[in-house]
User: Which sequence fits this backbone?
């Protein structure tokens, strides 16, 4: 049965650190390299809705909406607002 994965960063290295993203859903043994997580669909750890991961190197991926609620706007969103305000972009 096809499902969205709920990724979490885990260290599977024995002698040295080797991070991968593992699906934490019951009965799912899927994992993916840390380098390949960007552009993959994951369930958000806060709202459980699917979203496309846009940044790597995060422990538990969360969607942009939940990120904004928790941390405020991202730097990219702030820059975009400023550019819109001064008429550089629409």
Assistant:
């Amino acid at each position: 049965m096809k499902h969205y994965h709920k990724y979490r960063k885990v260290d599977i290295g024995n002698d040295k650190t080797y991070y991968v993203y593992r699906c934490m859903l019951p009965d799912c043994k899927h994992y993916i390299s840390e380098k390949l997580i960007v552009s993959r669909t994951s369930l958000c750890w806060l709202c459980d809705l699917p979203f496309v991961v846009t940044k790597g190197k995060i422990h538990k991926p969360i969607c942009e909406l939940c990120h904004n609620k928790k941390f405020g706007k991202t730097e990219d969103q702030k820059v975009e607002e400023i550019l819109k305000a001064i008429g550089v972009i629409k």
